[in-house]
Design a protein that fits this description.
Strand content: 15-25%
Oligomer: single chain
CATH architecture of the largest domain: Alpha-Beta Horseshoe
Strand order of the largest sheet: 1-16-2-3-4-5
Radius of gyration: 22 Å
CATH superfamily of the largest domain: tm_1862 like domain
Helix content: 25-40%
Structural class: alpha/beta
Number of helices: 15
CATH topology of the largest domain: pyruvate-formate lyase- activating enzyme
Number of domains: 2
Largest sheet: 6 strands, mixed
Distance between the termini: 17 Å
Number of strands: 16
Shape: globular
Length: about 425
């Protein structure tokens, strides 16, 4: 979102205001979803409704956890709005055109994929075309740094940073993995080095690199080395473990040299080939997986793994086997997440083959709760196993408080809305 705003800031003829609703402040573990939504609605009425008629465009971010909020905005808050309404985000990209038209008849334009270039062109031209679905390749010049442009402040201990846009993989549980725009855009070297120099002069303690896959391509080692040599900042990276098996000894050496400052995160998802096939991942070569994890352990490189449960053909036993295997390799930082099927995924079209049942969970996000291989009760048990993994890690953290990177990282969900004139 900050990248979009930074791109808009470059245009003198565009005036914008960004309103971000932090959904976490309206809910807790004991609060019922309807109570949380009521609080969000009151917040919208108080903070958004008085502003809307000052702007020619209202752009709303749609994702699975903001669906109900977006419907409230469209059907109540913006009911008398005379400007143009734009909808973008994960679920717009994932949803079919017909479904978008039927579910959101009030919306003038739907933007799919990355929108920095398309949104700016739409606003400046007022888009005279009758085409409602807008999908345009991004111009790299529109990827303007939100840090150098002072959109994002540098007054927090942890920041998020990208070095490339896009991901070359096609994971079946990811909306962007199923998106048509598969090219990876490397951000300009001059921009990235200026950002790192800016970070070095701040009080930032940690950079979370949000590249879908950091260790992809031929430039990532240079930027990581520059950060480590020119700052004292810790770095968290999302990586593909199979790439580390292939000619990435230099990367591993760098991680070893700075093992007190680097923290790796990678998804194993499952050790069972059939389960991996269903969620669009390549088969895992356990010998390669084991070899890389042993290298990480021997070199004292900090890392975390993630896995998925509620996959069709999965059972409690096979889920536990994946956990046991990872622990046998010496990794005890494991996050387990329930499967959510993107709207544009192949599995979405084949749900009947596996007798998949879905139900809304927290913030009404629809997730798989049963299939031909596990019951709803089994799903609950897998959820309990997942929670136990976190409890075990917290217990271990209390024992070993000196491990700097051992903190539990919570997924902060936010609901972006911004207006443009």
């Amino acid at each position: 979102m900050a990248s979009i705003l930074s791109s808009l800031k470059q245009e003198k003829n565009i005036t914008y205001k960004h309103i971000c609703i932090d959904l976490n402040q309206f809910q807790n573990n004991q609060q019922h979803i309807s109570e949380a939504l009521d609080k969000i609605k009151k917040h919208i009425d108080k903070n958004i409704e008085p502003l809307i008629n000052q702007y020619d465009f209202i752009n709303i971010g749609l994702s699975s956890w903001t669906y109900d909020c977006v419907q409230y905005l469209l059907n109540k808050t913006l009911i008398d709005y005379n400007g143009k309404i734009i909808l973008g985000g994960y679920d717009v990209t994932a949803m079919g055109n017909k479904d978008l038209f039927e579910k959101f008849p009030q919306v003038n334009y739907f933007m799919k994929g990355y929108v920095e270039t398309a949104l700016k062109e739409l606003i400046l031209s007022n888009h005279p075309s009758k085409k409602r679905i807008i999908e345009k390749s991004i111009d790299p010049s529109d990827l303007v740094s939100p840090y150098l442009n002072k959109i994002l402040p540098l007054n927090t201990p942890k920041i998020h940073w990208e070095t490339k846009r896009g991901c070359p993989y096609k994971c079946g549980f990811c909306e962007w993995g199923n998106h048509l725009q598969k090219n990876v855009i490397d951000l300009p070297k001059s921009r990235l080095l200026k950002e790192i120099d800016l970070f070095a002069s701040s009080n930032i303690k940690e950079i979370n690199v949000i590249d879908g896959t950091f260790n992809f391509g031929d430039k990532f080692i240079y930027y990581l080395k520059y950060i480590l040599e020119h700052t004292l900042i810790n770095v968290t990276l999302q990586v593909r473990i199979e790439l580390m098996y292939q000619k990435q000894e230099e990367f591993l050496k760098l991680c070893t040299q700075y093992n007190h400052r680097i923290f790796l995160e990678f998804g194993i998802q499952s050790i069972h080939d059939k389960e991996l096939e269903i969620i669009g991942r390549k088969k895992t070569k356990l010998n390669q997986l084991s070899e890389v994890m042993q290298k990480l352990n021997n070199r004292k490189i900090n890392y975390r793994t993630s896995i998925i449960y509620a996959i069709p053909t999965q059972t409690i036993e096979s889920f536990q086997q994946t956990i046991d295997y990872i622990k046998e390799q010496g990794c005890h930082k494991i996050n387990a997440f329930p499967l959510r099927i993107p709207l544009n995924a192949k599995l979405q079209r084949n749900k009947g083959d596996y007798k998949i049942k879905e139900e809304p969970q927290e913030m009404n996000i629809v997730k798989v709760v049963a299939s031909d291989s596990f019951t709803k009760n089994d799903f609950k048990k897998m959820g309990q196993i997942s929670k136990q993994l976190l409890m075990d890690e917290k217990k271990q953290l209390r024992i070993s408080v000196s491990r700097k990177h051992g903190n539990i990282i919570q997924n902060k969900q936010s609901f972006p809305v911004y207006a443009i004139s």
